[in-house]
Amino acid sequence: MTQHARSPLIVPSVLPADLGRLGAEVADLAEAGVDRIQWDVMDGVFVPNLTFGPDVVAAARRSTVVPFEAHLMVVEPDRLLHRYVEAGCDLVIVHAEACPHLHRTLAGIRRLGARSGVALNPHTPPEVVAHVLEETDLVLAMTVNPGFGGQAYLPAVESKVARLRRMIDESGLAIELEVDGGITDTTIVGAAEAGADVFISGSWLFDHPDGKAAGVDLLRRRATGAATASA
Ligand code: DX5
7: burial class by Cβ within 10 Å (0-12, 13-18, 19+)? Predict the structure, then answer.
């Protein structure tokens, strides 16, 4: 079993941002020391909300060099993969529940020159990704039901995160394990102890009383401490 060194990555969701000044908000996040920036792409079908088209992402791309990830909460994502890669996303994440040909879709993202990722809704078992680990660079375990920010974290997902951590370590592959939804300075501890190494935070980070940089720093310290304690 190979244990990969895992310093935590702190990645904001742009969903709570002031959409009237998106470029400036993205530049602020870069200034705050985030490792990547996540775009929550929703189509109003896979989830009951509608958000960022590729042109919006491309416009914000001019404001920073920080890597972008697109979290596609859409049906038939194959239609859109190239648009988000062209818009400047280094990583494209699709939902397993939306991909009848998940292996082909993940390989397709890599052929476009981007890193690939697969997301699982809270009810979806980890075994769904067991036969596509060679095709993915990241697995995302949703810790809320996707569609909105500001929801409560689901601790019941932690046993699935622990199972995914074992599957990834047993594979020997350098795959990131991401959690998304309800991540705060408190809930991040359970997620990190379970084995996650990438943490998405939206409302908690944008609302942090001391500003985004202090929030990023606190999340990183909490995740590092939890990972060290559970190693
Ligand atoms: C929900 C999105 C999340 C959400 C996170 O569908 O995938 O990225 O915006 O926001 P918080 O941290 O507020 O739960």
Answer: exposed
